[in-house]
Amino acid sequence: MNLKTLLKTADLGLDLLVGADAVDRPITRVFTATLRDPRRFLTGGELVLSGMEWWQAPEDSEAFVAGLAEAGVTALGAGTAESGGVLPEHVVEACKRHNVPLLVVPVHIPFATISERVILGLAAERSTPNLDRHRRLVAVVTAGGGLDALVKAGETELGAECWVLSAAGRVIAGKGESSEKLTKRFLHAERLPIVTGGLSVFATTAKERALGWFLVVAGDYRTWERERQDVASEFATLIGLERSRIDEARRIENRAAKPLLRLLLSEQTTQNDIQSQLAATELDDTEVVTVSSTKHSAAVVDDLLSAFDGPALVGTVDDEAFGLLGTNQPITAELKAMVRTMEPALGPTGLVLGLGRSTDATGLRTAILQARYARKLAERSPGRVTVMAGDEVASHLLLLAAVPDELRRSFRNQILGPLSTYDATHKSELTRTLRVFLEHSGSWTLAAAELHVHVNTLRYRITRITELTGRDPNRFGDRVDLYLALANETE
After folding, report:
1. Radius of gyration over alpha carbons of the chain, in Å?
2. 258: Cβ–Cβ under 8 A, 6 or more apart, which residues?
3. Which class for 89: exposed (0-12), middle (13-18), buried (19 or more C-beta within 10 A)?
4. DSSP class of residue 111?
5. What is the pLDDT of residue 84?
6. Domain 3-114 is classified in which CATH homologous superfamily?
7. Which residues contact 155 (CB under 8 A, 6 or more apart)?
8. Do 473 and 482 contact (CB within 8 A), yes or no?
9. pLDDT digits (tens, 9 = 90+) for 279-330
10. In this predicted model, which residue has the larger pLDDT, 441 or 24?
11. In sequence order, what are the residues at sequence separation of 6 or more whose Cβ sits closer than 8 angstroms to the Cβ of residue 156?
12. Nearest-angstrom CA–CA distance, 55 and 208
């Protein structure tokens, strides 16, 4: 199959912008790429489909297209939904410079449709003993059997147990077991496929590792005959096609997320407004998840929430990604385990999640704010990967997280600044003394014992603290100010 054949498929409506002299180039397979640099997934001859998620600036176009040219791809099929319906001119120019044919995919044509046509075309052209195998696998896809049916068919054709794992270690399809050790092994691998523990692991798409699904097949593919290896490779590609269909369906479902989220985040919204918008969804008892802004944060949250029973909506508002999950089951522990498993795939930016909980629609706005503030606190915790639930955090810390950073710093410095300066100048421990005194609820005896000082020494220090801060730790109102300032200091 070549570019000319694909371009003649009228119902796809593909427009060739670059590469009129290269329409005879053969297509060996199709890959959907969301990465800025997908080279490790490419072997040459691919039709690369990309929704332009990676594109932020002109220099990104040069790096992306140069990588495709280096990998020897046949062409780039670019969607324009992410770029407002217009393909950036820098992408066109980069394709001209590197002689990479460029096809524009109409907004209404899913990548899954193009992938299916290419796979069907390739299967039809084969004249190997494997032809029937390929056709049977493709027939499962075209019949709409779904991922479970496809995995069962793949097991039959390969004569081996197969299953699909996510980067979070979740079993997507098949009867294999989830393994954190196995998942981390292939997430750390520079290239796929790999063999580990008697299992072969194949990439199914050219997505970033944190969003990837991976085909696991029992046995060492390196010992298989070439025809069986080809079937396994196409099987993985077909799983990627099913993933594209699922992603497309989720994108359509998630269109309801942004209007609802904007209502929930607005201070002018009434409960009637929320209830009216919520009626268009299947959400009821709702767990709210918010994640710190990263390039693919919404997609990561969507993939994580799909592990749980119940309807889910995911959307982004002002560069902040939110997920809404309708469930009456706790998810914190399982979510933490999944995020811990996928850590090798998250890169230097990591992932920070905050969770809130609502038992009905009236508490949904409070829950989403609780989740946001829990996430803000989690961002101040050590480590690149953190999950923090609102009910794990003391209420006063959630209140502090809602205060702008500048005001928080001003509050802390106003109260504790004199103590910090005094301690630095005199090598004293007034700040520590105050913390211990408050932790023991103002007990002179217990605080003095922990500090290993006489009670009279402690009384002198508290007197000095009162003079420097203008607040008496023995008075309730002043004690609250001092306690909040110390809590703010330790984040």
Report:
1. 28
2. 315, 316, 317
3. exposed
4. H
5. 57
6. HprK N-terminal domain-like (3.40.1390.20)
7. 161, 162, 174
8. yes
9. 878 776 566 776 655 556 788 899 999 988 888 999 988 888 899 988 888 8
10. 24
11. none
12. 14
Instruction: Look at strands 29-32 and 46-50 and give their pairing.
Output: parallel
Q: Rounded to whole angstroms, how far apart are CA atoms 246 and 243?
A: 5
**CB of 95 within 8 A of CB of 78?**
no
Contact call for residues 144 and 249 (beta carbons, < 8 A): no
Q: What CATH architecture is 253-401?
A: 2-Layer Sandwich (3.30)
Q: Which CATH number fits domain 146-251: 1.10.10.10, 3.30.450.40, 3.90.1310.10, 1.10.238.10?
A: 3.30.450.40
Task: Give the angle 257-263-266 at the CA atoms, nearest 5°.
Answer: 135
Six-digit token string for 80: 């324009």
Share of the chain above pLDDT 90, in %: 31
- What is the amino acid identity at position 166? S
Q: Which residues contact 256 (CB under 8 A, 6 or more apart)?
A: 280, 281, 313
Fold of 405-489: Arc Repressor Mutant, subunit A (1.10.10)
Q: Which amino acid is it at 24? A: D
Give CA 264 to chain center in angstroms: 22
pLDDT digits (tens, 9 = 90+) for 381-417: 667 777 877 666 545 555 555 555 666 677 678 888 8
Query: Among the listed ranges 66-80, 114-128, 225-239, 320-334, which one has the minimum average pLDDT value?
Result: 114-128
